[in-house]
Amino acid sequence: MTQTAPSPDQVVAQRYRDPAPATPAEWNPVLQVLHEHRSVRRYLPEPLPEGVLELLISAAQSAPTSSNLQVWSVVAVRDPQRRARLAALAGDQEQIRQAPLLLVWTADLARLRGLAAARGVPLDGADYLESSYVAFLDAALAAQNALVAAESLGLGTVYIGAIRNNPEQVAAELELPSGVFAVVGLVVGRPDPAEDARVKPRLPQAAVLHEETYTPARLADIDDYEQRIAQFYAEQDLAHSWIDRVLARLGSAKALKGRDRLRESLAARGFPLY
Ligand SMILES: Cc1cc2nc3c(=O)[nH]c(=O)nc-3n(C[C@H](O)[C@H](O)[C@H](O)COP(=O)(O)O)c2cc1C
């Protein structure tokens, strides 16, 4: 049986679980891919087709980059044993073992430091928080472009923030030099259809969009969302409250699962953050 593609109204409705969405003013295949994003956590083991990695990277390099500094790099990990070791360091997440590719996006100040050293000129600005911030932002923008490219090809993805749980061991595993820090992982592979990953609803636009000036969140908007996402969680057999989840996620330093040490790890890895 062939499935008919959902209409733009249905796609936007699905993003908010809104039974009465506004009809989108415009539509195209890019908007379709963006709105249909969902994280995939079960994968088939098959390798990616030839040339896909290179396409993901050229999409990533097409992202804007602050002052064209291009202060990021990515490590493509295909070796199953290395992926298994990284999974153990990143919250033991099975999807890292299952999928054929893990992309580790890094903030990379080492390349420019090397250029400065070769010329014998200072690069003091690289030691400031601003430059680390730029590198993290550049890496994230590149990663997100690769994610959208992968999803446009029908592949599944999931970010791995847990790659920052044990930064020193991850750096050793990937042989990262000082000045290169793993920002986030991205698992890429063919989704296992048995998972039935669904689009996770987002907060209503009224909660995130402020016209001209900022207005504090209205509890009614959050309550409304709490009910819509409860439906999604119930379908996935998960605990039902978004509010409980987000408050627990940031409730204590321990809940950060090692990432409460990030400042210290960054300093040790050549990111002094002045
Ligand atoms: C920076 C970042 C780090 C993430 N880290 C993880 C992770 O370690 N494991 C995981 O299963 N999902 C991870 N995710 C996926 C989020 O949980 C997911 O995007 C969020 O719940 C929204 O669901 P959706 O992507 O299906 O819309 C991460 C997402 C981002 C943006």
Report on this model:
This protein is about 45% helix and about 10% strand. A four-stranded antiparallel sheet has the order 1-2-4-3, sandwiched between helices. Helix 3 (about 50-60) crosses helix 7. The radius of gyration is 20 Å and the shape is globular. The chain has helices at about 10-15, 30-35, 50-60, 80-90, 95-100, 110-120, 130-150, 165-175, 205-210, 220-235, 240-250, 260-270; strands at about 70-75, 100-110, 155-160, 180-190. The longest helix has 24 residues, at about 130-150. The chain has about 270 residues and is of the alpha+beta class. The structure holds flavin mononucleotide. Flavin mononucleotide binds next to strand 3.
Would you spell out the secondary-structure blueprint of this structure?
Blueprint: H1 8-16, H2 29-35, H3 52-61, E1 72-77, H4 80-89, H5 94-98, E2 101-108, H6 110-119, H7 129-152, E3 156-160, H8 167-174, E4 180-189, H9 205-208, H10 219-235, H11 242-249, H12 262-268
Antiparallel strand pairs: 1-2, 2-4, 3-4
Helix pairs in contact: 3-7
Bound molecules: flavin mononucleotide (FMN).
Labels describing this entry:
alpha+beta, 4 strands, binds flavin mononucleotide
Which stretches are low in confidence, meaning pLDDT under 50 for 5 or more residues running?
A: none
For the largest sheet, list the strands in their spatial order: 1-2-4-3
Rg result: 20 Å
Could you give a short account of the major beta sheet?
Answer: 4 strands, antiparallel
Compute the number of helices.
Answer: 12
Mean pLDDT across all residues, rounded? 95
* Strand segment count: 4
Fraction in beta strands: 5-15%
Supply the helix-strand structural class: alpha+beta
> Based on CA inertia axes, which overall geometry fits?
globular
Give the ordered list of helices and strands.
HHHEHHEHHEHEHHHH
Estimated helix fraction: 40-55%
Bound molecules: flavin mononucleotide
N-to-C span: 60 Å
